[in-house]
From TrEMBL:
InterPro entries: DoxX (IPR032808), DoxX-like_oxidoreductase (IPR051907)
Membrane spanning stretches: 71-95, 107-123, 143-162
Family in the record: Belongs to the DoxX family.
Keyword Membrane among record annotations: yes
Membrane-topology annotation of the record: Multi-pass membrane protein
Organism in which the protein naturally occurs: Streptomyces phyllanthi
Name recorded for this polypeptide: DoxX family membrane protein
Amino acid sequence: MTVLHRRDLGLLLLRLGTGGVLAAHGTQKLFGWFGGHGIQGTSAFMESVGYEPGRASAVASGLAETGGGTLLALGLATPAAGAAAAGGMAGAAAVHTPNGFFNQEGGYEYAATLGLAAAGLAITGPGKLSLDHAFRHVFDRGWMVTTAFGVTAAVTALVVGARTRRVRQEKEGEQEALFE
């Protein structure tokens, strides 16, 4: 097996593993599969952690994970897929950051790992064992990486920033109520 074949096989395994986990996690949000809570339960959760409106946040998160994960696994539109999944995981990490790094304490370790793997795949590319390669990289051009990450970074910054402000205002309101 040559180095090129090893690289392509490694990228395939990474895409299938990362994409599969993301897609499964997203279908929990969208459809309630695999023990998930579906749109209704995810909407309530999103609002409880400061993402409003809850339904739009649940749909956006579910689509980023399901769509991004599925496309990553297939190796199709890899820059957009990886950037979307990474953006979704940045939003998840923002919720878990106050709990520290490690997942056992409710930290952001899991979200960060999935997000970094998705981002790495978007930058590296899907390899030859992919639909992008089969379609001659029509949806995997170099400029698409920059564009996908630029758009995702801007949207993620706006959404996470709004959530951070909302959570901060709620905490300030709770503290003021204690002193009244």
